[in-house]
Amino acid sequence: MKAPDFAYARPASLDAALALLAEHGEDAVPLAGGQSLVTALNMRLSAPGLLVDLNAIPELAGVSEDEGVVRIGAMTRHRDVGTAALVRERLPLLAAALPHIAHPAIRNRGTIGGSVALADPATEWPACCLAAGATIVVRGPGTERRIAADAFFLGLYTTALEPGEIVTAIEFPVPGDGAVWGFEELSRRHGDYALVGLAATGRRSAVGLSDLRLAFFGVADRPVLARAAAAAIEAGDLTGAQAALADELDPPDDPATRAATRLHLARVVLGRVAGRMRDGTVKEET
Ligand code: FAD
Q1: How far apart are CA 209 and CA 201, in angstroms?
Q2: pLDDT, tens digit, for every residue of 58-68?
Q3: C-alpha to C-alpha distance for 126 and 135, rounded to whole angstroms
Q4: Of the CATH numbers 3.30.465.10, 3.30.470.10, 2.102.10.10, 3.20.20.70, which one belongs to the domain with range 61-173?
Q5: Does the Cβ of 76 fall within 6 Å of ligand 1?
Q6: Under 8 Å between Cβ of 140 and 112
Q7: CATH level 3 topology of 180-279
Q8: Quick count: other Cβ atoms within 10 Å of Cβ 249?
Q9: Mean pLDDT of the chain
Q10: Which segments constitute the FAD-binding PCMH-type domain (predicted)?
């Protein structure tokens, strides 16, 4: 299928992009990597009158560090996020997630800001944001909002973004001493959307794991922090943690993958990730 007719603008500054979005209201949408939006246009799931292309706004791309925070510009491509030396050193969780995002062509075009703004519940970056305690930086006309990831993902493809706002960056606190992380994803084929995934951060000491943040994806209408499961693991009770997932997750139930299957897989993934975090080992990603 072909996309319906639309107008196209390629502003060279964030202010110009915001002005276009304000002028055209809900008839205009930002275009980032186009890896989800163009598909939606071609399938006629979406028919905006104007695409505001963010690709010519240099300030929106790049990775930098300042005062204990790694800032990743919204237009940074998936590949550039996961391969940046700063990310590999400071935020290895993100580097581990990268190979699970679709395929090379999509990773070369798709952006972290587009992924976060889209909020597909089966995707990696939103869960990583939640696990890492990231802040989503959002600009509107004359306003800037900084929204904790915990408060940003509200439901299926639904976020705290207001019409006319643009995600400009995602800020990740640099993990401190004793920090550990874990990542595991199960999908039918490598690169497919996750059946179940888990991005996790925490701290490890001689007495065990603490400050655990377990962000599951593919098992609810948004990425989910499993708080009771985290508390059980901190208490050394993996079986209790796996049992707690029945109340904390709300997996979709479809004929291809039943909810009970996803819940079972979530428990398997939790056992693997918790074990590696406890032992201080890292899974080799391919
Ligand atoms: P676009 O497609 O350009 O935009 C997506 C939406 O976000 C649009 O509504 C747009 O208006 C809005 N938007 C974009 N940027 C901003 C911004 N800065 N501020 C506000 N709103 C904005 N993703 C995964 O994470 N994991 C996968 O396994 C995966 N598999 C895929 C498989 C296929 C076959 C395809 C086609 C896509 C897959 N994707 C997957 C999606 C891909 O990662 C997209 O790149 C991503 O979801 C959207 O990023 P984008 O930059 O392409 O955004």
Answers
A1: 10
A2: 999 999 999 99
A3: 11
A4: 3.30.465.10
A5: no
A6: no
A7: Enolase-like; domain 1 (3.30.390)
A8: 20
A9: 96
A10: 1-177
Q: What is the three-class DSSP state of 72?
A: strand
pLDDT computed for residue 24 by the predictor: 96
Protein residue whose Cα sits closest to atom 40 of ligand 1: 102
Dist. CA 113 → ligand 1 center (Å): 8
Ligand 1 mutation pick, 18, 27, 36, max ligand atoms within 8 A of CB: 36
Q: What is the pLDDT of residue 30?
A: 98
Which atom of ligand 1 is the closest one to the Cα of 75? Answer: 18
What is the distance of C-alpha 204 from the center of its chain? Answer: 24
Whole-model pTM: value is 0.97
Q: Which atom of ligand 1 is nearest to the CA of 60?
A: 18
Per-residue model confidence as pLDDT tens digits over 243-262:
999 999 999 999 999 999 99
Taking the domains of the chain in order of start, what are their residue ranges? Answer: 7-52, 61-173, 180-279
Report the pLDDT value the prediction gives residue 32, as an integer from 0 to 100. Answer: 98
**Cα 109 from Cα 241, distance rounded (Å):** 38
54, 155 Cβ separation under 8 angstroms: no
- In short, whether 108's Cβ falls inside 6 Å of ligand 1 is no
Averaged pLDDT for residues 179-205:
95
Q: Is the CB of 74 under 6 A from ligand 1?
A: yes
- What is the distance in A from the centroid of ligand 1 to the CA of 127? 15
- Ligand 1 binding pocket includes 136 (Cβ within 6 Å): no
